[in-house]
Amino acid sequence: MRASLDLQMLKRTALFAVPTLAVTALALLFLADDGVDARQNSGSLQILGSETMRPLVTACAEAFLTRHPQADIIVRGGGSGDGVAALLAGMADISMTSRPFSDKEREFSVMRGIDIVVSELALDGIAVIVNGANPVTTLSLDRLKSIFTGDVATWHDLGGNERPILVFARAAGSGTASLFSERVLRGSVEALGTQTRTTNEAIVQEVAARPDAIGYTSLGALRNADRRVRIVA
User: Fold this and answer.
1) Which of 30, 183, 189, 228 could be cross-linked to 64 through a Cys-Cys bond (beta carbons 3.0 to 4.6 Å apart)?
2) Residue 96 burial (10 A CB sphere; 0-12, 13-18, 19+)
3) Does the pLDDT at position 9 exceed 50?
4) Are strands 213-218 and 117-131 parallel, antiparallel or unpaired?
5) Nearest to 102, CA basis, from 121, 130, 81
6) Residue 187: which region, alpha, beta or left (left: phi > 0; alpha: psi -120 to 50)?
């Protein structure tokens, strides 16, 4: 099954809907630039944060720069946590985040006198994926939790081969990781053998290359995936 981004697939395969946010102390530059004098759009913006949002915001920036080539927009990923930290430290103009602000972050923004404006841009989903050669097609949330906490260590326990499960997760600070931890691990911690990657695309590549791998990723990161990976129901 080829991964696509139609609404029905999102309903069938996404574990959770993820609100992707642009958080800024300024105004969002490329949401409504039609009819604006080009000379007003000749400044620069540093945008940093969520890997889930990076492809979307990069496309927005490229479209804006096509109309306003005198502007300078730099979009970088790194994770939601890095984006929020950069915004609060004055190192970014716009933070991309796929999770809400924490209480600590909001308290810090008040202490620094930073007026935060949050704008929802889109909905994405978190999908659990396995290698295309893996016979496992369905996992309950309890089984999924057991895999990521190390209580289930081989595919044989799940109806597959007698081989160890290779578990891949997003690195700390990721909004995707935060939501997966909240909804699936429910207060438990990932097993010590879990391997982390900094981007959703890296998770897809690892699972595609390793027959015994499992991971979770943004549904959007699967837009160019092929039959080497399969979304688990």
Assistant:
1) 30
2) buried
3) no
4) antiparallel
5) 81
6) left
